Amino acid sequence: MKRILPALLLGVVLTAGCSSISTRISSHRAAFDSWPADVRQKVEAGRIDVGFTPEQVTVAMGEPMRKYTRTTKDGAEEVWAYEDRKPRFSVGIGGGSYSGGGGVGGGVTVGGGSRGEDTARVVFANGRVSAIEQRVR
Question: pTM surpassing 0.85?
Fold first, then answer.
C-alpha cells in the first residue's frame, strides 16, 4: 500500500499536466501566433470570450467533456460542456458487519472523477462563440 499511493499520486499529476494551456498552445503555435494580442492574452489565461472560434476555445479550455446540439427558431447551435477537471482525493474508513461477520475497511480514491455537473457551457452559432454559461457557486 505504501508504494501504491505515491504511484497513484504521480499518475494523477502527470495526467493533469497532459493537457495544459502551454502544451495546447504549442500544438497550435501557428494559429496562436496569428491571433490578435487580446485573444492570445485571454487564451494564455485560460479564458474565452464571445466571438472566439472553436480552435481558440479548445486551446484555452481543452476538449469539452460533452457536446450538445441546441435547436432554436434561429437554427442549430453547438454547445460544449466543461466540468471541473481538478484532481480529487478522498479517504474513507468504514466498519460494520455483513452476515454476522465483523470487519473494518478503508480506502483511498485518487483521480479526476466525475461529478456529472457542467461548470461551463460554450455555445457556438455560425462557427463562433455566441454565449458563455458558467455555473454560479
Answer: no
Per the listing, cell 496562436 goes with 32
Q: Which residues contact 129 (CB under 8 A, 6 or more apart)?
A: 48, 49, 50, 51, 52, 53, 57, 122, 123
Q: Considering only CA atoms, which of 111, 107, 78, 83 is closest in space to residue 95? A: 107
CA distance 135 to 73: 25
- In the chain, where the domains are located: 4-96+104-134
Own/partner long-range contacts of 35-40 (Cβ < 8 Å, ≥24 apart) = none
Is the pLDDT reported for residue 96 higher than 60?
A: no
Question: Can you tell me the distance from the alpha carbon of 69 to that of 80, in angstroms, rounded to the nearest whole number?
Answer: 9
